[in-house]
Amino acid sequence: MFGFGLFKGLLITLKNLILPSRLFTTHQYPDRKVGPIELAKFHQDWQNTSFLQFLFNNPIKIIQSLLGLISIKDRYPQHSRFRGQEFGWYENRCTGCASCAKYCPLGIIKIETSRSGIDLDEGQKYKVDVFDIDMGRCMFCGLCVEACPYDALFMGSGFEESKYFRQELNIDIDNLKNNDTKPSNWFRPQLEGKNYDPRGSGPLEWNQVGRHEKPSDTEQASKWGKR
Amino acid sequence: MPLKTEPVTINLGPQHPSTHGVFRLKVTFDGEQIVDAEPVMGYMHRGTEKLAEERSYVQIVTLTDRLDWVSSMTNNLSYVRTVEKLANIDVPIRAQYLRVICSELQRIASHLIATGFLMQELGTFGGTPLMYCFREREKILDMFEMLCGARVTLSYMRPGGLIQDAPPEFWERLKIFTSEMPGYVDELESLISDNEVVLARTKNVGILSDRVAVDASITGPMLRATGVRWDLRKAHPYEIYNSLHFEVPIGSNGDTFDRYFVRINEIRESIKLINQAVEQIPSGPIRTEIPYFFKPPVGTAFSSVEAPKGELGFYIVSDGGISPYRCHIRSPSFINLTVLKDLLVGASMADLIVIFGSIDVVMGEVDR
Predict the structure, then answer these.
(1) CB burial readout B118-131, b (16+ within 10 A) else e
(2) Tens digits of per-residue pLDDT, B324-355?
(3) Which of A76, A108, A143 is where one domain is finished?
(4) CB pairs below 8 Å between A and B: how many?
(5) Which domains does chain B show, CATH number per domain?
(6) B229 with B248: CB under 8 angstroms?
(7) Is the ipTM beyond the 0.90 threshold?
(8) Which chain A positions have a beta carbon within 8 Å of B190's beta carbon?
């Protein structure tokens, strides 16, 4: 029958409108309006209050949330391998070998080193003076992270780093030192083994992120000794 | 007394929402009919081939993501296969299976975009099928994020294998996806294929004969819609396609509807392929370790894969250095666009955008 296809299409649209399994993954950003149940769950997760306790203790908030006045900050779930901004850099791990700078397809990493004069008996360690990344040209391919032989450089998980001026996107060594080091799991299987989540867990110290555990001083002495 | 008429030349683009990039089309109309059409390409020329000449073989993988930005995975696959052929690098068998799974997922995503935007350009639905297609594509992009941390510019493959093995949650998500997807495809097809408005707008519109298609070396769903059974996965099997069973859907008429219909059926075949590959996938390493800056022997290599839009090939000339002497890209969108004039001349003004949308081009690949 001519015209039947249109009604069939309308039925499919209705099905997609009603069925909860067919809902769109629309996500309000950066704030999300929540109802009372979701609000209680949010507090349960983040402030360790129990579900029913919150509902009884905060009647005003529940009325507000029913009216659509309360919103929570919530981001769309993101995998821990996400390659994003806020590079994690560990000064203690970095030897200034500049593998990342060589491997960058765009050549936006600039490293300058000088002789530090410390650890003379183990071979001199280089001091990294300049570590500039031009984030305005970075395309987040992650090749610098792949190239780092000492696990000193990590991708981050952020994506909301818009700036008003282009020169603010140049990251220098002070920015890298002051960053919260929440490394992404991308190309770092040792972090995946620990089930580390850069968005849920806290920052990691330099001796927690290596491919191998750091040997203790006695192990080191027995293995290498003093030359 | 007859009215005095004369042809009118109108510019479509370069900035037009239906051109999937920046593409200009000089169209000459005689009343409602198109009498001449001249495509103007090059507005998006980014010099990918030239940039490849001063980057190392691994760094070029990041450039190939930007060619056809809705199917990065197959671009990566075609490039790394050429480098492996050039430098005689072996690929572990698990990596080959994962590559096939990824490229079939990417084929589904790309065909969903093609179908959704064709319906959007018909103007009949106001975006409902497009949103349904995007909802399914979102699941594929989430799976790609689990694999390689990015959603569009993936850079997942490397010469010699893959960057990382898939995490365990990827396989769970893939199982849910492959079980749900056939139902969604059936629903999408019944939404579109039975609709009288769509049929009236797409049947017998933009007919491409098989003779012209073969002469112009058209590949991909556009060629198969004309009735020619040519698929590189069957004709020259690469990776592990030999051990998988699938059919090559073909059309009969070569019109816009057939092009859409071939794509929908290819989504079904892709789901079958993924299911077989998931069953057969062995465990083992996923990457042959090669140096970051390696020097392949002097020589040339050409290798091509069946990308969602057609045959995507790379031709690399090596002079023994760390970067290629020449890197040529045989992109399906560019070749498929060359028959645009044959399709458009004689059609009416309202069918222009529909015909253009059914070719499914991405301008990043046309201008390279």
Answers:
(1) bbbbbebbeebbbe
(2) 999 999 999 899 888 988 888 888 888 888 88
(3) A76
(4) 76
(5) 48-343 (1.10.645.10)
(6) yes
(7) no
(8) 8, 12
